[in-house]
Amino acid sequence: MKKLLTVLLVLGLWGCSSKKDTGSDTNNQENVKVEEKQQAKTMTLSVNKQKYKVTLLSNKSANSLLSIAPIELNCAKDRHGYYCELDNALNVADKTAGAMKKGDLYVKGGHTLYIATKAETLNTKITRLGTIDEKGVDALAKSDGVGTINK
Q1: Are residues 66 and 110 located together in one domain of the fold?
Q2: Domain containing 60 — which CATH number?
Q3: The dihedral sign for the CA sequence 150, 72, 95, 134
Q4: d(CA 117, CA 122)
Q5: What is the pLDDT of residues 104-141, one digit of tens each?
Q6: Domains contained in the chain, number
Q7: InterPro entries given for it (predicted)?
Q8: pTM (2 decimals)?
Q9: Phi, psi (deg, nearest 5) at residue 57
Q10: Full domain range(s) for residue 26
Q11: Strands (E), 40-90
Q12: How far apart are CA 7 and CA 103, in angstroms?
């Protein structure tokens, strides 16, 4: 009887430990998938031969921006930042903007590309695309809104 209980106990413990290993493999696979999704795509903002990093979000709108690059910027300025009209409309998923910070890159209405020059809260509908390095925003200001976004 003791041998039977010992065998059952060992088999039960072995069964539990193999289930944990399987779950662990599944968790590792899920972690890899999450890491792949979190790897951001980047572009470059060129202003007066200097290059600045543009980090894109993982969304269809940002992918649309990437697909139409290079984009020549000849931006106008308003109270929110720099903006320019795009030749090709981007896919949009407009949501209320909320809190914006300097360097936020977004599109309004599919055709108007914006670069925020200050932190503020907006109550307008936009689609977020990513961020531009703050030094790049400063360089764009010095060049009166002229630059290029490249892949």
Answers
A1: yes
A2: 2.40.100.20
A3: positive
A4: 13
A5: 999 999 999 999 999 999 999 999 999 999 999 999 99
A6: 2
A7: Cyclophilin-like (IPR041183), Cyclophilin-like_dom_sf (IPR029000)
A8: 0.72
A9: -75, 165
A10: 1-39
A11: 42-47, 50-56, 71-74, 76-78, 81-85
A12: 65
